[in-house]
User: Which sequence fits this backbone?
């Protein structure tokens, strides 16, 4: 059963999750930040050393062993500069921007998932909307006539088809679709003609 409380609970969890991450970022000590970037720096250096060793084994003419120490030291200097305290602000800003972008994407994904659930629920409650929305749609024999054919299976098949097509619509096209669906729903359930300027409140008195 579709419940708004389920959606609200998930939104609350997302809110707490990202608030906690922001809290952790703000409250983490400078020493812990230093340890983090030191670990990243050492990982880069170690990966380079491993890669350089493989390159010398398989391509000795391009990576002679006598240049090994110079290459490693050069890499260490570059990594030391790259992750120096004066350059860490760039990474911290990127982390903050990435966190904001991630939260936005998660919230949008959750909202779109909930909208799909609403869409499915409405079409199952009022299958006639399918005929109003797409009166000329054709159903192929291979989908209609099967050994397991029955009304419910065909209805679920067409509802899923409709929902998936709408889900693939461009973001700015969806409001028009749902506005039309809402108009048909009101026309059937509240006896308001499609395109009428009368409001729901007017019809209810």
Assistant:
């Amino acid at each position: 059963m579709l419940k708004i409380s389920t959606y609200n609970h998930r939104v609350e969890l997302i809110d707490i999750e990202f608030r906690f991450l922001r809290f952790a970022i703000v409250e983490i000590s400078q020493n812990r930040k230093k340890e983090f970037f030191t670990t990243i720096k050492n990982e880069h250096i170690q990966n380079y050393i491993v890669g350089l060793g493989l390159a010398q084994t398989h391509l000795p003419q391009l990576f002679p062993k006598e240049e090994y120490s110079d290459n490693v030291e050069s890499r260490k200097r570059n990594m030391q500069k790259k992750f120096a305290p004066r350059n860490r602000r760039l990474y911290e800003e990127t982390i903050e921007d990435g966190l904001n972008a991630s939260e936005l994407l998660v919230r949008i994904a959750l909202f779109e998932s909930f909208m799909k659930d609403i869409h499915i629920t409405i079409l199952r409650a009022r299958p006639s909307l399918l005929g109003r929305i797409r009166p000329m749609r054709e159903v192929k024999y291979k989908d209609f006539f099967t050994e397991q054919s029955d009304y419910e299976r065909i209805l679920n098949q067409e509802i899923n088809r409709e929902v998936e097509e709408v889900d693939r619509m461009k973001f700015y096209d969806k409001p028009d679709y749902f506005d039309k669906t809402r108009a048909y729903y009101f026309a059937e359930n509240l006896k308001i003609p499609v395109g009428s300027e009368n409001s729901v409140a007017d019809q209810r008195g």
In short: Residues 190-205 have pLDDT under 50 and may be disordered. The chain has two domains: 1-111, 126-205. Residues 170 and 177 are 11 Å apart (CA to CA).
